[in-house]
């Protein structure tokens, strides 16, 4: 390929406009990405300085370590508790909000309010709600005759508490995305279905759900990625405990890197996290591409 | 009103109360005394509302300084993102050069890389260059945005090519066209990028937790969680802190809801 002087000049101009972003991406995304992979093959001192080559040792240790398996399991349970419930709840509320009623915008703002709430704020509020003696949750449970658990003390309920908090935090985003998906469904489709005698639940499962399936799939990926990255609510509510029940992948990276100072071992886990997120995002990209092609 | 409408409104009201309940409860508890909070059954509304807890927050942690830090860092990120993303989006929409497509994919690829996966080397970089406990350490790593670039590129491509041709005939430089025509015509999209950048930076937790150690360099999110780890846990105090920290973002939600929704529904790509 020959380059004319004009082409070289226009490339120079283009790169000049891209330079600020490219430099920042190089310094804080691409280079650290390469460093993470590199570090995962080495042992380090507590300062982070590299000492000896570890080869695949960290990865082998991960595969054979029960702690890592427990962590992956905790991550999977966390995703399983959070993502489907969050999306289902979001869909029900979005359908409710997708009506032409007076003052509907007030309800839309109220129900999507959690998009502005930070994980730290949400975690602190839910910490109070889950408090066994002061919290409203156990009081309400006691009113219906259920003895509320010590939410954050027991492993099985701690992960549920963190999941409920996370569902609440992501609800705003889910509602907004699904509402805009619902608004894109042509009215004629509902009309036609109504003429065919469909209504209520049947209309919901046969028309609404298939028509918003692109939004549902989008949220499935985005919410799962968000769960994989969730750190704040765990740090504020449980610190990974009790007995590692909420020590999800990101939290394990944090503890191994910044509390145990095993940067190499933590980097190997970061590579696993990277592969999981990249895999999910690539599936999403492929899916969108296909939709665009066959529209 | 028809019964159907009444039922719908009832459901909407119940749904809104349930979803907004934790926030409303935080507000309510922030106005209660500690002794009232400790009563059984747990109260919902304050019998005797007081602002004492808010005063106590100021006495316990430097909340004013935390808010200042968060505003400085978030604003710096917004300004940085608007500049870098405008320049890049301009190159991706108006300029023609070899490798443009490839570079655009390079930008988009950053969306697949979770910040948490690169946080170890990033921490080391910031420590090596002496940026721990500084505003630049908190802000600079986030000043480029693939999502914002993508969003602005969409907006820039809506601008009629005739304007570009006319500007060239008038002898305007490439940069001048960006400043005098493209940017002013793209204000809504710039608003979306700004609100997004502000909200996501203001709400950050992991990164500021890692790179700040001095109390006075803490941001709001990290700062208020300290209240949880005080010797005696005072819930009224914690909730007052929560309300003070959440208030700016909730105000932003009310003011910039349209921009936020546009950002969230911009398609498959999300920052």
SSE diagram, text form:
The complex is a heterodimer of chains A (about 300) and B (about 270).
Chain A (H helix, E strand, L loop, with lengths): L4 H35 L2 E3 L5 E4 L3 H8 L1 H32 L6 H8 L7 H11 L6 H8 L11 H29 L3 H9 L4 H12 L1 H17 L2 H6 L11 H10 L4 H31 L2
Antiparallel strand pairs in A: 1-2
Chain B lengths: L2 H28 L3 H4 L14 H9 L2 H31 L6 H10 L9 H10 L6 H5 L6 H11 L4 H9 L4 H12 L1 H16 L3 H6 L8 H6 L9 H21 L1 H8 L7
Helix pairs in contact in B: 1-14, 3-14, 4-8, 4-11, 8-11, 11-15
Describe this structure in words.
The complex is a heterodimer of chains A (295) and B (271). With 295 residues, chain A is an all-alpha fold. Chain A has 2 domains: 5-53, no CATH class; 68-293, MetI-like (MetI-like fold, Orthogonal Bundle), CATH 1.10.3720.10. Chain A has 13 helices and 2 strands. Chain A has helices at 5-39, 57-64, 66-97, 104-111, 119-129, 136-143, 155-183, 187-195, 200-211, 213-229, 232-237, 249-258, 263-293; strands at 42-44, 50-53. In chain A, strands 1-2 form a two-stranded antiparallel sheet. In chain A, helix 1 packs across helix 13 (263-293) and helix 5 (119-129) packs across helix 7. With 271 residues, chain B is mainly alpha-helical. Chain B has 2 domains: 1-50, no CATH class; 53-264, MetI-like (MetI-like fold). Chain B has helices spanning 3-30, 34-37, 52-60, 63-93, 100-109, 119-128, 135-139, 146-156, 161-169, 174-185, 187-202, 206-211, 220-225, 235-255, 257-264. The longest helix of chain B has 31 residues, at 63-93. Chain B is globular. The interface between A and B is large, with 93 and 95 residues.
């Amino acid at each position: 390929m020959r380059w004319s002087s004009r082409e070289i000049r226009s490339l120079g101009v283009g790169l000049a406009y891209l330079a600020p972003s490219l430099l920042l991406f190089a310094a804080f995304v691409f280079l650290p990405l390469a460093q993470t992979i590199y570090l995962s093959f080495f042992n380090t001192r507590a300062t982070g300085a590299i000492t000896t080559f570890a080869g695949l040792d960290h990865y082998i240790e991960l595969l054979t370590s029960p702690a890592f398996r427990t962590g992956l399991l905790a991550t999977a349970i966390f995703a399983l508790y959070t993502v489907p419930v969050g999306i289902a709840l979001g869909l029900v509320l979005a359908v409710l909000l997708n009506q032409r009623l007076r003052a509907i915008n007030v309800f839309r703002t109220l129900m999507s309010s959690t998009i502005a709430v930070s994980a730290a704020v949400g975690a602190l509020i839910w910490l109070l709600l889950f408090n066994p003696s002061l919290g409203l949750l156990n009081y309400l449970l006691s009113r219906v005759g259920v003895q509320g658990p010590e939410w954050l003390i027991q492993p099985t309920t701690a992960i549920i508490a963190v999941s409920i908090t996370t569902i609440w935090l992501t609800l705003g985003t889910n509602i907004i995305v699904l509402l805009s998906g619902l608004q894109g469904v042509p009215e004629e489709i509902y009309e036609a279905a109504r003429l065919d005698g469909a209504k209520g639940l049947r209309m919901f499962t046969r028309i609404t759900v298939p028509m918003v399936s692109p939004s549902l799939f989008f949220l499935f990926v985005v919410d799962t990625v968000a769960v994989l990255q969730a750190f704040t609510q765990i740090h504020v509510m449980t610190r990974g405990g009790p007995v590692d029940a909420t020590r999800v992948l990101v939290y394990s990276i944090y503890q191994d890197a910044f509390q145990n100072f095993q940067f190499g071992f933590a980097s190997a886990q970061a590579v696993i996290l990277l592969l999981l997120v990249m895999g999910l995002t690539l599936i999403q990209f492929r899916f969108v591409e296909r939709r665009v092609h066959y529209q | 009103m028809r019964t159907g409408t009444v039922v719908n409104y009832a459901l909407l009201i119940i749904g809104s109360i349930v979803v907004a309940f934790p926030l409303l409860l935080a507000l309510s508890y922030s106005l209660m005394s500690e002794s009232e909070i400790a009563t059984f059954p747990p109260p919902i509304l304050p019998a005797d509302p007081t602002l004492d807890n808010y005063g106590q927050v100021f006495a316990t942690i430097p909340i004013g300084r935390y808010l200042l830090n968060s505003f400085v860092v978030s604003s710096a990120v917004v300004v940085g993102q608007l500049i870098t993303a405008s320049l890049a989006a301009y190159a991706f929409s108006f300029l023609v050069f070899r490798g443009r497509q490839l570079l655009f994919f390079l930008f988009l690829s950053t969306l697949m890389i979770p910040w948490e996966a690169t946080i170890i080397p990033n921490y080391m970089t910031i420590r090596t260059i002496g940026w721990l406990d500084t505003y630049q350490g908190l802000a600079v790593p986030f000043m480029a945005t693939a999502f914002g670039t993508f969003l602005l590129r969409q907006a820039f491509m809506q601008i009629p090519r005739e304007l570009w041709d006319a500007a060239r005939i008038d002898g305007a430089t490439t940069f001048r066209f960006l400043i005098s025509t493209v940017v002013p015509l793209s204000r809504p999209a710039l608003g979306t990028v700004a609100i997004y950048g502000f909200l996501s930076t203001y709400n950050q937790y992991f990164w500021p937790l890692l790179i700040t150690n001095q109390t006075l360099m803490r941001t709001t999110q990290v700062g208020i969680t300290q209240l949880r780890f005080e010797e005696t846990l005072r819930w009224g105090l914690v909730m007052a802190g929560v309300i003070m920290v959440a208030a700016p973002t909730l105000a932003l939600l009310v003011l910039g809801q349209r921009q936020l929704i546009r950002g969230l529904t911009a398609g498959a790509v999300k920052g």
